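Archive entry: two folds, one per protein. Generate the first.
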Amino acid sequence: MTASPRLTTTLLTVVLISIGVSLAQEYRERDGNRGRRRGGRDDRAASRTGIPDWGRKQALPDDVFTFVRIQYQSHNDWGWRGGKWRTDYPDSDLNFSYRLEQLTSLDVDPEGKILTLTDPELANYPMIYLIEPGEMALEEAERESLRSYLLNGGFLLVDDFWGDWEWENFYLEMKKVFPEKEPEELTLDHEIFHCVFDLTEKPQLPSISVAQRYGITYEPGKPGAEEVHYRALFDDDGRMMAIICHNTDLGDGWEREGEDPWYFKNFSEPKAYPMGINIIFYAMTH
C-alpha cells in the first residue's frame, strides 16, 4: 500500500474561515429543511436531499478534499437499515462537505465516497470517517489494511458511540489493529481544539431527539455516557493517526442542522461544525 497523500500545498495553504456569511445567516437564507427536502423528485437535487451541489472546478478537478465514509460489519447489523456504518447518511456527509466548501479555502468534492477498509482506493484519501463503531466487528484483512493505511500517513475520525460497553468493544477491536498502542486522552489545551476555532470546551453533542426530549447532552440509558472523551492514537513519531470522539455525536449535528433552529444554534453551529473543521485542518497539516 502506498502512503496516503496529504493535500497539496496549493490546495491547502491555510484553512481560512470566511466571516462574510455566518452559519446563522446561511441557515436563514437556505429555505426548508436540507436534510428532509426529498420531494419525491427523481433528479440530482432530490438525490442530494436539497443540499446545494457546487460542482467540481474545471481546473484540477481531482485536487479536492473528499469526505470518505467507511463501510464495515457490526455484530447486530441484520435488518438495521443496512448497517450501523450508514448512520446519518447521506445528509451528514453532504452537509459537512457543503460547509467545508462554503466556509474554508478547501476545494471539496460535493459527492463524497463510501469505501471498505480493504478497497484499493483507500490509499488515495488522507482522511476517513467511521461512525457508530460500538458493535464493530472487523475481519483480519480489514485490520491489516487499516493499520497499513494509518501508518502510511492516513487519518481516522471516529464518531458517535456511547457508554462503557461500546467503548470496550471498540477498544478491543483497535487493540487487534495496534496491539502495541494505547489511546491517549486529549486535554483541552491540545492544538486540535484551537487550530481554527478556539473552543472553550470539548464539544459534546447529543442526538437531536435526545436534545429535544430530555434537554441533556448525552445518551441516557448507557452507563458511562455522561462524560465526553476525545482520545487519539499516535504513531512512533508522535503524529496523530486517529481521533476517537466518544460520548458525542458530531454527525447528528451535521445531518440535522436544518431541522430545528434551536438545535442548530446550540449544537450544530457552535460545536459540530467547529470541531469537525478543526479536525480536518489538524489532520491535513500534521
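Generate the second and append.
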Amino acid sequence: MRSMQCFISVLFAFISLGIDAQTYPSKTIRLVSPYAPGGGTDILARLIGQKLSEAFAYAVIVENRPGAGGTIGTEVVARSLPDGYTIMIASPSPIVVAPHLQAKLGYDPLKDLSPITMISVVPAVLIVNPSLPVKSVKELIALAKLKPDQLTFSSSGNGGTGHLAGEMLKMMTKTQMIHIPYKGTGPATTAVVSGEVSLSFGNIMSTLPYVRNGRLRGIAVTTPTRSPVLPEVPAVAEFLPGYSAGPWYGVLAPAGLPSAIADRLHREIVKILHSPEVAKVLKAEGADPVGNTPAEFAAHLRDETERWGKVVRETKMKF
C-alpha cells in the first residue's frame, strides 16, 4: 500500500511539473550564488538575475550561499525540486574540482544537476600587493625560490579556480607558497589589498578596478593569451608555456528539469548574453559571452572534470 501511495505521489508531482512548465514562470525564482558577495560569480549572478527578472516579469532573487569552496550552495540546488524556481550560477570549483577533493560530497555534479548554458570564460589575474617587490612572473618565481613557504596566496576557497591556478604555478615552477582559503573572491582580493596575503589569482571582473586604481599590481593573466582589457599585462604562459587556468561560469538547475522549462531558461539567458547591452558589459569586464547549448555545456563539464582531476592528483591537493 505504501509503495502505491509513493508511486501516486511521485506521479502527481511529475504531472504538476508538466502543468507548471506550460505557465513557467509564475512566481519568484531563486538564483543561488555559492560564494560571498563581491566576487565574479556574484557579479554575474546579479547581472543575469536582473535581466531575467525583466524578461520573465517575475523577480529573480540572488541568494548567496558561500562556504566549502562553493559546495554548500551547490548542494542546496542539487537537492531542490526540479521546477525551475531554484537555479544557480556555477564555476569550476564545486562542479568539476570538488568531486576529486571531497570523499563525501553530498551530490554528483554530472548526475544531480542539469546544465543550461555557459555564460562566459573569464581570465584570472595574478595580483600582488604593491609592497611586494615583484613586477613579473619571473621575479615572483625568483622570490618564491629565495623564500620558500614565506609567500602566501589567497583564493575563493579550497578547490576554487584561484587555488588551482596557484597549485599549477607551484607545480610547474617547483616553488612553495602557502595557500590561504577565503569564502569568496571578494574577501580573497581584499586580503591582498590589505597586505594580509602576498598575492592571489583573482577574477578579472572583481580585480580590474583595484589594478586600474593602483591598489593592486596585476603581473599576469591565466588565460593562454593576453586579455583585451589588460593588453599590457602578459599571460603566465609567456613565461611558462602550457599554463592555462582561466575560470568559466554557467547556469545549472536540479537534475530532472522538464525540457520545456530548460528550453525557456536557455532561450532567455542566451538572448540576454547576446544582447548588445550585456555583451558590451561583459566584454568591458574581460569576459567573453558564450551561450552554448545544454549538450555542449555538459560535454565541457565532463572534459573539465577529467582535466582538473589530473591536476588534483599530480599536486596532491587536499580539501
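Annotation attached to the second fold: The first strand starts at residue 29 and ends at 33. The radius of gyration is 20 Å.
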